[in-house]
Amino acid sequence: MSESTPFTVLMVDDDADTRQNLRDILELDGYQVDVAATAAEALARDHWAEYGVVILDRKLPDGTAEDLLPHIRRLAPDAAVMIVTGFADLQAAIAAFRLGAADYILKPINPDELRTRLRRIAEHRRDRESLREKTRELRATTQQLWQAARLAGVGELAASIAHELNNPLGTVSLRVEAMLAKTPPEDPRRRSLEIVEQEVERMARLVGNLLQFSRAGVNQVSTVDVCEEIRRTLELVEYHLRKHQIRVEPDFAPGVPMIYADRQQLRQVLLNLSTNATDAMPNGGRLIPRVRSGELAAGQPAVVIEVEDTGTGIPLELLPRVTEPFFTTKPEGKGTGLGLAICRRIVQQHQRTIEVQSRLGEGTTIRITLPVRPDTNVAGLHVG
Ligand SMILES: Nc1ncnc2c1ncn2[C@@H]1O[C@H](COP(=O)(O)OP(=O)(O)OP(=O)(O)O)[C@@H](O)[C@H]1O
Ligand SMILES: [Mg+2]
Q: Of 28, 135, 158, 278, which sees the most CB atoms within 10 A?
């Protein structure tokens, strides 16, 4: 434990020699010391918040410790008050505990005794601080969990709206089809109807996508075309990307094999990554989804997926933390810090890792390598 716990001690004592002696001793131990000779002088101080300990002579020319204590509690609620008392006054000093004194020490003051007691007070302060810190952390985590639960609620709501939209969309689509069938090619209304048909199709696709995303998370492994999944995911956020002037430049190598994976989970990973990339480019930029064939360390065939952006990048010291649950640099209400944590968990379920590369001010690339066929049988993937 440190001998020089840095907090300011206020000593209130009418005896000039005591003040000077104790001040010298405590300053040698590394404490900041302030002194006052009377209750009035002490109360007139204007930096009470700095005092960690007040050493208070029980009998001052203008009052007793019992008189002064309520004022001290008000001025410095966190300061520990130590009453200095003669043996004859011990009962009165003990009474001072009822008014919030933390400790007492007998006159004449033994410097070693004083040191021990100050150290104890310092320890208490540290414990209290760390308890406060933990309480703060707990409060923040609870807040984030609420946020996550709320987001899940919003997801459910979006799913139910998507569900509701499905039927009217079906009706519109059928009607348009019927009208188109009755409209001859040279009819000037035909072009408009065709546009309506295309747009309805687009809406149906979006709604279908949204429903797929929000379907309850039973792991279902099947053959998946990664490029197709990326296209569909980006379709879902297309409006968002356009609004933020983000150009999508897919770079898909030809002949990439299908992989065995959970389609929903893969989509969730891709959605999280593209959302992060979008957030990192508030003034526009380029989003480059890349897919190519690769190999895992053991020479096992794999598919490498990269999501590259030309955004803000991640400071080097934060890189190791970005996949921690609840780590976010986004303002409250915007990020929960779960996106990459979920990605990491999913990718690990598929038995592979996720790499993050970033250069501050230039952009970020997230790379995921997935085996074409998992090592274990399909059931192996269900074990989290
Ligand atoms: N492409 C990126 N560019 C810059 N920073 C990023 C990028 N992706 C992630 N980060 C950083 O990593 C942090 C954690 O990302 P993560 O997706 O886990 O949470 P989030 O996006 O903050 O919140 P959530 O995804 O839960 O809404 C982000 O707050 C951001 O600071
Ligand atoms: Mg995110």
A: 278
